[in-house]
What does this fold into?
Amino acid sequence: MGSNQVDLGRYQLGWSDEVEYAFEPVKGLDLSVVEQISWWKGEPDWMRSRRTGALRTFFKKPMLPWFEENMPGIDFQDIYYYLKPATEQVDEWENLPEQMKLTYEKLGIPEAERKYLAGVTAQYESEVVFHRNREDLERQGILFCDMDTALREYPEIVKSYFGTVVPVGDNKFAALNTAVWSGGSFIYVPPGVECDMPLQAYFRINSESAGQFERTLIIADEGSKVHYIEGCSAPVYTKDSLHSAVVEIVVKPKAEVRYSTIQNWSSNVYNLVTKRARVEAGGRMEWIDGNIGSKLTMKYPSIYLVGEGASGEVLSVAYAGEGQHQDAGAKIVHTAANTSSRIVSKSICKDGGRTTYRGLVRVESGAVGCKSHVQCDALLLDEESRSRTFPYMEVGEKDAEVAHEATVSKIAEEQLFYLQSRGLSQEQAIGMVVNGFVEPVARTLPMEYAVEWSRLIELQMEGSVG
It folds into this structure.
């Protein structure tokens, strides 16, 4: 998002729009709702069957214990599962309805598109309303569209990979997404093709008590390379909204994928996302995760290293303010020899916020020569804030190197004194220390996003003093 587009401090994306919908939305979840979604989209029988089967799995599947503990009051029947704006998808910005255009201009999409000249997808409620693919991407054979278009135009590719990385029964929310998914991004990069500029998507929940359930599928074929960036926002309502996405990534031999998230949900959103990548021989997967906002985030990007020499890295930052809980982490599974992984998790708590690191590193028997390093650092800005760490290490192979280190700290008085002696206010000094703390993640972002991330952190620090 453009750094001069909108003030994001204290969650100021909190406007909402009057939007006309294609049909009267109905709350609740049952077989008729799922079948209606599939009917509206004109889907093939195999996808309709996949959805209805997933619904049955959702109703049977219990909540994971820590999910139930963190969100005891969620009512799955008090949510809109499908909101279809009364507009068709367009590929010219001028053809969007004025209200939607205004929304996305506030979010900075036109500027981002001009600066990067990259493919852009914009999702509003349940549907992708704008998409443009760069002509040079098309000439290279790169497919980039929303998932609904992919299901229509590339059904065999979707059918081959859909649900293969995140099975329908993986967890309750993966089953829910499979039943009611709508929108999301589809990317296929052909063998040996390198996509030089990031591909971008923006997701926005506009309605009260709404759910958003995008499904993203990325396939990087052998020796290819791609970077995908998503940004998220929602207005502030008194009633909670639910965001439950599934992201599946297939990294073929010697391919590289980087997936960056800049999340700034409002403080009434439950953000429950299943993200997983499967990496084949010599491939590399990187998750870069920036989490600010939401009432509760539960997100653990996962990497399965299934081919020899594959590698993976998860870099994440979580900020929790008043009334917020960021329960985030990573999961990396080494199933092949000579694979390597790294997890760096940074969390910041302020005004009584809570952060939790929940992670797993597993090395399976026979996966010789594996190396993994986990680093968890928490920064507490007051006495009321809390941070917890739940690292799990399951090592089934003697010939492996697995290390874990964790720190919990406060800002040192000497640091603040030094910075203030150089003319900074105490508030500015705290912001600078915090930005230095999260720099290992910020430096992995393109400059436009790194600047925006730095501004978000600084604005969250406003009012830190006194």
Q: What stands out?
A: The CA atoms of residues 182 and 224 lie 27 Å apart. The mean pLDDT is 80. Residues 31-299 form one domain.
